[in-house]
């Protein structure tokens, strides 16, 4: 459970915030002064601090300086009034993750906290334990990878890691391509963590969910009152990522107009909030992730060729999991270890039936699907090994379904003539196969539904090599 410390000298605000965050699954402590907050931080570990900018005994600037010096892995979000927004932006440059303005809106608070925790989880890997030697610290920094990145053993995985090692120390923009679920965001985080920007923000932006109206504000930010609904000043993703890395996920979904504005920002390395005349200098590394063929999108007039070439200083293709067979069991064991820690379980491994299924299944959802399957199976497992019944039906029956499809193909190839007898046989076997799927290959239930005995069913299955 993530732990949050609220620092606000207004007791009612601290109490309301605390209750709200507890209801949303966080463990929360509160303090009404900076000195007490530092004492709490010394006693316990906190993932995130929500600190009011104006406190009776100190201010947000001093609190941020102390927290980042003593607890660099702890994220900080500043709570401020509208009049302090300029200072809040300054604090972000000093290392605060973001700010939220009063009056506080629950959705905004929760969204900002979740994004901060996700980013801080990556950044925390940059700071070795205090009792580790400096030489070991350097090695850890060089080999540092986010938790979700698993270095596989296949040729494709080794080549992927080699490309990350090559490109990470540079400032090149990178295009990551591959099917959905292949781990493009974890590769982007790995590039960031192995770069000189590792102690700066890593900001991921899902371009696929952006409407044309929202895209400009999300990218570049806006000033309060710059358009209807702009109730507060907003920092855009480019500004949030300044000094660090910005991941643009599914960039091919952006409208042509936004692509033009994006091109200007990338070329000029400056950003201007909507409604502002002030330009902000940018030092941002851009990584683009897409499961779309951008060259095809260019040919169809949906993506700007000049923008593509701006991004394509280096490209990495992530192969699908089905082409990394040697990695499947390694990934599965790593995900099992993660699930054990998350669920406080002690599942040691997989039954042989499960291993066979994992290696046979084609994994259309790739690494993401494998991780979700293992987490679910760990939750359902009561013994030391994950049993076959803990797997989803589409995985546990995949080999049988494949055998059925082969059997149907063999049947149809044998029965080329369309006489009545062959048509009747084909219809019979299709009915048998359909019922077997419906009852998850329970032959007793299938025989009962088909109104035949088990021996007859076995003989008919044997006739099409489906035993």
From TrEMBL:
Domain Sigma-54 factor interaction, first and last residues per copy: 150-379
Alphabetized Gene3D superfamilies for the sequence: 1.10.8.60, 3.40.50.2300, Homeodomain-like (1.10.10.60), P-loop containing nucleotide triphosphate hydrolases (3.40.50.300)
Keyword Transcription assigned: yes
One Pfam family this sequence matches: AAA_lid_14
Ranges for domain Response regulatory: 3-117
4-aspartylphosphate modified-residue sites: 52
N-terminal signal peptide: none
InterPro entries membership: AAA+_ATPase, AAA_lid_NorR, CheY-like_superfamily, Homeodomain-like_sf, HTH_Fis, P-loop_NTPase, Sig_transdc_resp-reg_receiver, Sigma_54_int
Keywords noted in UniProt: ATP-binding, DNA-binding, Nucleotide-binding, Phosphoprotein, Transcription, Transcription regulation
Keyword Membrane: no
Name listed for the protein in its UniProt record: Sigma-54-dependent transcriptional regulator
UniProt source species: Paradesertivirga mongoliensis
Classification lineage: Bacteria, Pseudomonadati, Bacteroidota, Sphingobacteriia, Sphingobacteriales
């Amino acid at each position: 459970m993530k732990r949050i410390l609220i620092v606000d000298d207004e007791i009612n605000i601290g109490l309301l915030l605390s209750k709200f965050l507890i209801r949303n699954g966080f463990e929360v402590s509160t303090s009404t002064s900076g000195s007490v907050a530092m004492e709490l931080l010394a006693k316990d570990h906190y993932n995130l601090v929500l600190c009011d900018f104006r406190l009776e005994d100190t201010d947000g600037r001093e609190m941020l300086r102390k927290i980042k010096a003593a607890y660099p892995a702890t994220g900080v979000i500043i709570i401020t009034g509208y009049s302090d927004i300029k200072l809040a932006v300054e604090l972000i440059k000093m290392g605060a993750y973001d700010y939220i303005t009063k009056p506080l809106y629950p959705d905004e608070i929760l969204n900002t906290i979740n994004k901060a925790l996700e980013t801080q989880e990556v950044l925390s890997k940059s700071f070795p334990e205090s009792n580790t030697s400096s030489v070991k610290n350097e090695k850890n920094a060089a080999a540092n990878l986010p938790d979700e990145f698993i270095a596989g053993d296949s040729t494709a995985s080794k080549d992927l890691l080699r490309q990350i090692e090559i490109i990470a120390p540079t400032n090149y923009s990178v295009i990551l391509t591959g099917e959905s679920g292949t781990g493009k965001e974890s590769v982007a985080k790995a590039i960031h963590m192995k770069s000189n920007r590792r102690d700066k923000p890593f900001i991921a932006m899902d371009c696929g969910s952006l409407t044309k109206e929202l895209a400009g504000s999300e990218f570049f930010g806006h000033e309060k009152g710059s358009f209807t609904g702009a109730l507060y000043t907003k920092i855009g993703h480019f500004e949030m990522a300044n000094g660090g890395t910005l991941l643009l996920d599914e960039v091919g979904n952006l409208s042509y107009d936004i692509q033009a504005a994006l091109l200007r920002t990338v070329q000029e390395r400056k950003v201007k909030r909507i409604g502002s005349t002030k330009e902000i200098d940018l030092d941002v590394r851009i990584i683009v992730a897409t499961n779309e063929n951008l060259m095809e999108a260019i040919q169809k007039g949906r993506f700007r060729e000049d923008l593509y070439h701006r991004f394509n200083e280096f490209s990495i293709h992530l192969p699908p999991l089905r082409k990394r067979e040697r990695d499947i069991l390694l990934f599965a064991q790593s995900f099992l270890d993660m699930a054990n820690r998350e669920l406080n379980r002690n599942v040691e491994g997989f039954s042989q039936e499960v291993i066979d299924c994992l290696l046979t299944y084609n994994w259309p959802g790739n690494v993401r699907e494998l991780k979700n399957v293992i987490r679910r199976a760990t939750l359902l497992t009561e013994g030391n090994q994950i049993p076959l019944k803990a797997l989803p039906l589409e995985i546990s029956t995949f080999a049988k379904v494949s055998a059925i499809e082969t059997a149907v193909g063999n049947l149809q190839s044998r029965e080329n003539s369309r006489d009545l007898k062959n048509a009747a046989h084909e219809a019979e076997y299709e009915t048998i196969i359909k019922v077997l799927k419906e009852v998850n290959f329970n032959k007793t239930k299938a025989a009962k539904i088909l109104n035949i005995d088990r021996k007859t069913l076995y003989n008919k299955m044997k006739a099409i090599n489906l035993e």
